[in-house]
Amino acid sequence: MDMFYRSFLDPDIVSMIERMHPPRVSVDNDSCSDCSLVKVDSANKHGILLEMVQFLTDLELVISKSYICSDGGWLMDVFHVTDQKGKKIRDEGLINHIQQAFGTGKEVSKELQLSLRRNVRPTHISSEHTALEMTAIDRPGLMSEISAVLAEMGCHISAAVVWTHNSRSACILYVADDSNGAPITDPCRVARVQAQLESVVEAHHVNDEKRSVRLASPPSGKTHTERRLHQLMEADRDYEACCFSCCEGIPSKDVEFYPYGKCDEERLNQCDATHVKVENCKEKGYSIITVRSRDRPKLLFDTVCALTDMQYIVFHAAVSSKGSRAFQEYYVRHKRGCTLELEAERRRLIQCLIAATERRVSHGIRLDVRTQNRLGLLSDITRVFRENGLSITRAEIGSIDDRAVGTFYVKDTSGQTVSGETLEMVKKEIGGTILVIDKSVDEQPETTHSNPSGDSSSSSSNGLVERRTVSFGSVLWSQLERLSSNFKPIKS
């Protein structure tokens, strides 16, 4: 009979510990030459790692490396971060916000948003608008049809986030009554809007593929938009199409549960796909999850989000990146206290992690749009895309004052390269300012985060030189004591 150990603390005691020992956060700009170190010392609880990563990514900071130690009732984590330009954090307002606001739910001030030039994308579902959540089979023109229906029914779309992956589409739209700008709360109107949208969403679905449309009331608390999109895509089972084979020429059946199975390290590092390996460390009582993928913004958030929502607790982790590749290693147990023993459980975890890393990958041409905000704006933009044979693969749009700012990733529906003539036509019809960025974003990472200086031999702050063939498992255990000693009391 297998026995598992799981520590237990009374919830009241946990709450008392959190009040007596709130998170202590410091920003160190001296220890590392090319990045700032954000050190967190806090009482441990389920989901706190996701809170930390979410907090930093919402501030538009790039996490290039991270070392996690949270065994027992306490955690000590270190994040190597830079701004979007690859520079250290120098803004005193931002540093103070990081040190004081973590775990408090304190909003970023308007002054700080302006100094960061933060995008107006919606990070949280707010109570100021009605949140509309939808999942559907992806097809060209879908967003055009949805936004046109809402415009016809007098629903103003103030913000929207759209993801597509594995022929699935998920979106969260923030709508308000155009007559007064208030949330839509009338039950009869809610029912009419939902019925119209269901007709659009289900128009091209077969009978056994009914999709969801939910017009939610303003939430009582905050729901993170991107985490919610992950949950919507996972509930729609977009992960089922994720492939286990890691290299060409290897039959899928040979590596179905072991994506590294027949591949050597060199081939894995050269292969551009996402690879996930799961094995058990019986002497320590952990499952070890290794993820190798293309590096990109918010990769750590997406991976930790998937692990947290699947009820896995991260006790130790080492995350790093080199060039265009990222390496993540997690020591986990399920919330029940057990490791991953069943093949079906491993299979689903592997597929979900691959899906989580791939959902945000950008395909197509990036268009940054700035124009006058108005009723039906999203409908007009998406109609122009559809009429010019373009399909949206990912989108974010929001508004500030009377201006609308959005980013759209579009591809030609016929599979051809988008011509310059088409782009000029789109610019002319939409109006405002439109910038074309990263014409080959599906062929290269959006940005390279680690090692901004370009020195391929750079070392991390603890003196460990990164190599493609190194496993961070043994490194992690040997560095925990040294890592812990880096934390110093923070004066109040």
From TrEMBL:
Stretches assigned to the ACT domain: 131-211, 366-444
Alphabetically list the UniProt keywords: Repeat
What PROSITE patterns does UniProt report for this protein, alphabetically? ACT
Per the record, which residues fall in region Disordered?
441-465
Compositionally biased intervals (Low complexity) = 450-463
> Which GO MF terms does the UniProt record name?
amino acid binding
Functional summary from the UniProt entry: Binds amino acids.
The protein in question is named ACT domain-containing protein ACR
